[in-house]
Design brief:
Number of strands: 5
Strand order of the largest sheet: 4-3-5
Largest sheet: 3 strands, parallel
Protein name: 3-ketoacyl-coa synthase 11
Order of helices and strands: HHHHEHHEHEHEHE
Keywords: Acyltransferase, Membrane, Transferase, Transmembrane, Transmembrane helix
Number of helices: 9
GO molecular function, one term: fatty acid elongase activity
Catalytic activity: a very-long-chain acyl-CoA + malonyl-CoA + H(+) = a very-long-chain 3-oxoacyl-CoA + CO2 + CoA
Shape: elongated
Radius of gyration: 29 Å
Strand content: 5-15%
Helix content: 55-70%
Domain FAE: 81-244
């Protein structure tokens, strides 16, 4: 046991050091041009005297064609560099759905409802109780209405109703808050880990709000909780790859978990 504790103590500092090394390497690669050009320019300027600068200015005045050509090349290279850089994507606004107070459930209420189903053994109930205590669920956690019923109603229709309640509730709030029109939405990314119906959840959103026909719609499912980050990255890449329009509000990404 003592050996394992010592190994864990060594692993934590090593992981932190490795994290900083990766961050430093990424920063070095991303800003290599600036990190090398600035010192070289400083060294070159410190070694030049006033006579050298006067001689250089006189030489350039006699070779305007060469100077003009160099300036044009620099401008073209700078333009290509700026155009090749990916556009920055910002989170302008967001909404989180908050259910009705009647869907609030304490740990004791959940364990009581689970026990009344008669589908779990004492060992399984003890395991669920341990999960509730260690997972961070509080006494004011919201759950689905079907999980509070006895017996628990786990039908497909109820699951679809729950998904619609959450999705449409948060979208209505977001549209009211931002004033964005549904015709201005060009990208839709929907993510749900457990419920994957056919037609998909994204098609439910498209049909509900009558979104335009050429919308880029993506439905992520069955990928676990990590798909939340994947959906954000997907929306970001789509926004960077798509040409901006004159309205500047043409591309709106909605992430629903």
């Amino acid at each position: 046991m003592e050996c394992e504790k010592k190994q864990n103590q060594y692993k934590k500092p090593n992981s932190i050091i490795l994290k900083h090394v990766k961050f430093g390497y990424h920063y070095l690669i991303s800003n290599a041009m600036y990190l090398f050009l600035v010192p070289l320019s400083t060294i070159a300027l410190t070694h030049l005297s006033m006579d050298d600068l006067v001689h250089f200015s006189n030489h350039t005045m006699l070779n305007l064609v060469v100077v003009t050509l160099c300036i044009v090349i620099i401008v073209i290279l700078a333009t290509l560099y700026l155009m090749s850089r990916p556009r920055k994507v910002y989170l302008v606004n967001f909404s989180c759905y908050k259910p009705d107070q009647t869907l609030m459930c304490s740990k004791e209420t959940f364990m009581k409802a689970t026990k009344l189903t008669g589908s779990f053994t004492d060992e399984s109930l003890a395991f669920q109780k341990k999960i509730l205590e260690r997972s961070g669920y509080g006494q004011k956690t919201y759950i689905a209405k079907t999980l509070l019923e006895v017996p628990i109603n786990m039908s497909f229709d109820e699951a679809r109703k729950e998904a619609g309640m959450v999705m449409f509730g948060v979208i209505d709030e977001l549209l009211a808050k931002t004033g964005v029109k549904t015709k201005d939405i060009g990208i839709l990314v929907v993510n749900c880990s457990l419920f994957n119906p056919t037609p998909s959840l994204s098609s439910m959103v498209v049909n509900r709000y009558k979104l335009r026909g050429n919308i880029l719609s993506y439905n992520l499912g069955g990928m676990g909780c990590s798909a939340g980050l994947i959906s954000i990255d997907l929306a970001k890449r789509l926004l960077q790859a798509t040409e901006p329009t004159k309205t500047k509000r043409d591309l709106v990404s909605l992430r629903l978990c």
